[in-house]
Structure prediction request, 1246 residues.
Amino acid sequence: MRDHLLLYVNGQRHEVRGADAFLTLADFVRERLRLTGTKIVCAEGDCGACTVLVGRPRGRRLHYLPVDSCICFVYQMDGCHIVTVEGLTPGRRENDPLHPVQEAMVRHHGSQCGFCTPGIVMAMAGAFETDDGRHRPEPLDADALRRALSGNLCRCTGYVQIIEAGESIDPASVPPLAQLYPEQAMLADLAGAAAQPAAISAVRGGQTMELFAPRTLEEAVVFKASHPDAAVVCGATDLGVQHNKGLRVPSVVLDLSHVEGLSDVVAADGVLRMGAAATWTAIGDITEDLVPEFHRIITLFGSPQIRNAGTIGGNIVNGSPIADSLPFLFVTHAEVEIAGGAGRRRVALTRLYRGYKQLDLAPDELVAEVRVPLPRRGEILRLYKVSKRRDMDISTFTAAVLARLGDGGVIEWMRVAMGGVAPVVLRLARTEQWLEGRPFTEETMREAGHLAAQEISPITDVRGEARYRRRLAENILVKFYHDAQPAPAGAVR
Amino acid sequence: MTERKISIGFPGAQKEITVEVPEGTPPPWDLKSAHTVVGTDVTRVDGAEKVTGRAKYTYDLNLPGMLHGRILRSPHPAAVVKKVDISAAARMPGVKAIVLAFDEGQIGTKRVRYAGDEILALAADTPAHAEEAIRAVKVEYETLPFVVDLDEAEREGAPQVYKDQPNVKPGRPRGNADEAAKRIAAAAVAVEATFRTQVQTHSPLETHGHVIMPDGEGLKVWASTQGVFSVRDGLAGNLGLKPEQVRVITEYMGGGFGAKFGPRAEGVLCAKLARKAGAPVKLMLDRKEEHLAAGNRPNSRQEVKAGADKDGKLVGIIVRTRGTGGVGGGAGCTIPAIYDFPEDGIYKEEADVHTNAGAAAAMRAPGHPQGIFALEQTMDMLAHELGLDPLEFRMRNDSDPIRREQYKIGAKRIGWASRRNKTPGAGTGHLRRGIGMASTLWYAAGGRQARADVEIHRDGTVVLMQGAQDIGTGFKTAIAAVVAEELGLKPSNISVKTGDTRLGYGPGSGGSTTTPTVAPAVREAAYAAKLKVFEAAAAFFKSKPEHLRAADGMIWVEDGSGAGAENRKSLSWKQACALLPADKVTGSADRRPNTEGFRNTTAGVQFAEVEVDIETGIVRVIKVVAVQDAGLTLNTLAAKSQIAGGVIQGVSFALFEDRIMDRARGLMVNPNFMDYKIAGPADCPEIEPVVFQVANGKNSVGAMGLGESPVIPTPAAIANAIFNATGARVFELPMTPDRVLAALQKKGGEKSA
Prediction:
């Protein structure tokens, strides 16, 4: 057992003990290390001004990804190398050249007030990092840059020149971080620490705080059984926000981000198996070819920074009725495997939810894995997310439709799930039943829409009015009908 | 004083005028001036500082012994503060000072008027201790009835926000209502509609805040402000100091958009804490406070009637507007100055309505995006009634020579003739595209007070000193470009000191006036300093100072032969400066008043293309062409950034932003960036900023302000594009999917928000 964390920041080794382990990473770099290039603006993962690159050991490499440092905690950084904006040009003196991303941002006037700039520079630099630690082969085009920066807000510039700056960068000129820092030496040092679980106790503001970061699921389950109130943390994208708002500062933390195998994602025999700690980035990568429709929605429901931290386990256990992944998991008949003191059990995901954020999960149980039977050839899948903004916005309404058509365009079966229309994500059983065996026509779907609108119980809140959600429930089935038609030649979707 | 002929205007609308040029000042730049720096793409002089994270904002400062301040705010929208008990808080670890936000004698009667109103502030050794101590303060409130909604607040019997005055405060009407009504009644076509716009918060990324250090009897202040001099004067006034006892510094600041003038309540509290504790105090608002208590753009309800004759000429307009700036005022909407309404056909009345919400503050073109949203949709509705192309309708009613030219440029770039639906909503499928446009103007010639000093050192170093702050627009770079142009150097050769009340007076960054006000003084200071270098160099050339010329880093005798420096006797800048009689020479200049010149206002037009999903109501802005005049644009790179930034804020105001109040509890429900959405990179349409150069000849430089104008027409252009795409008009901002879908349903029905 270790009583400290080991991490590197801009190549500097830090052993972190006591209360500092419970700071957000942004506070740690700003307040403790006085690296003030990293800004905290929204404190909830919406603006990216706090973006840093986190290098995690993966095989014989450090794999760097952009993360919002204001909603993750130092303890999650155990065994990592963090690069802040000050670390992009190690050893740079006054008149030395800037990093190519920085240089392009200056040349193209990518800043006005400049407060968002460090975060934008880091997100953009992160987009040039590759899995193999070499140079990115292709330049980033405007679309790729918009995606890479979808978690960053700028209030001044209108983004145009930021995107132009990114497009102008020759990837061969961007040094991979693996070349800027002694990767192997850091890896060797970090690997020693990684073998052991970390346990840290501290007192802050009169409150005791305890962290346990196990390496195996068994250790985790044992700890959870003896600490049923422990906050289970993977990516902390939700806990981080609650922490910053003072809504939830847990005294006991069980950090699953270092549990071996819990982040794995594999597809075999038509089933996609995702460890509870698998990040949305990892899931997005594997689904790109496997289930492009799910991949598309993943790229919409968070920024790279959020997807690099947030996990499927967190999304499921958080149980929000507008969780973006749930409608898909509902229509595909996903199952979760739950590990607890009494062993393992499997349950259909739809059965996991009892009410608004109420889960069928004992205090000593942890979600270990999610299994998704993949849609088969001939089945039509469409996923919908309606929000004010296109990216990085909490949904007003979500829906998934999975259907199989029989001969002569008859609906063999159709599964419909909707979110944001009731305290939990709903499967629309009555609508589905009505649809079975009917011809797949616009009229049928319009009729089904009316049924769907009656089957839900939406409310009015900050993200939309009940009336509007009902209308969406109606319209989305018609939209599905249009989307399911073969696109005419040359059409753009 | 000499007389000089200059050409002003723009190619196609050129004008020759004679101006008087005082001794020792340069003649105004005009259409014939050949520039090498100004009017080109100039990279920011502070770019490297910003991209490396080295730029230190107020928020980043860390002084030895610095304390952290925090404000306790009312959780109630309306209440009397009955008791304040700080005894427990004062004993909390690390607490060094506590100050009330009002006189102690007011306890028992003090009314707080919105959730977020200041109660007290305290300072402690760490942010966590300050936070804990705030929670330990006990305040007893007697809650009062409140009202947060515009329509409810103006009703008879609504709870009164101020005890001794009604909620509705009418302004002075303009024009003759009967006459205007008569003209509209007699018009060939008339339209009538009610438009609504929402409350928008400024949402700068750096929140309001200060670091204040006691400095002898006075104060040294670092402020995230757009007006260092107004912070100085405000603090001095509030603390009984002389202005010169307060020094305010703003090297970098993270955005303001109109909300950061003067010390405001949080600055005064911070200063009092620093004096009481005898230590520097940092007090930055958090994101929630920024939404609640740091200013906003008021909402509006605008009832509009207008008419045109059968030839498509405007005959009259009646506008009745009301809006709420919360406990503050300033909710008026712009007077329709763009189009050629006959003066006696205009009637306008407006009123501020108080509600129990945070006070409004000037926000980027106050009143204008709101007013233009109504005016430009009204224009489109009239064109539709007349069966006229909306652009043709504007051509018939807009005599502005600049905009008439800009309409042509914009129409061509957006593909007005080919891409617009001749019949609105004529498309098929569930994704419908359409094009719309709107116009803008601003009063932007500058002219308030400013003083600039330019030092030239014997080693060739040039230092420009000017006290105004760079809000982020690139003011620092723009004035460096002016000096570089005058001295024949590069902007990077100029060391610029700004944002410090110890330097020459400069205006607050508001009203699009900073650059146009300051730049002429800067040029004249540089010119005066240059003459001193010329004097020193004249002996070397055996010539007179007035015959010398500085360009490309060289100085030579200008003989009119047109030959470059390489073929003649010349000195490099450094060589010439080495001849100076003293270590340094200084040129100083005060801003002189503007002369008549070409125009007082700037002009612009915007064209927008949108795509509307008629199943979900989601609007995507595809492209915006923004043609904008800013007089002589000093830095085209910065100008494009300013235009695109205005457009995206317009898109954001049009589609996303909305301060939502819970009417039952009187609280803002989205004081964050999770639910208060501002546009991100993926919402950003293709933006084509077109810089339209005009020589205005009003002063030695002729730059006009650019901060505000480009944000004004965007929401209206988008609304008109939605109509062109769908045949449905949205009368209310933000144009959320919900409202667009509702508009589609009642297409052609009632005309109001």
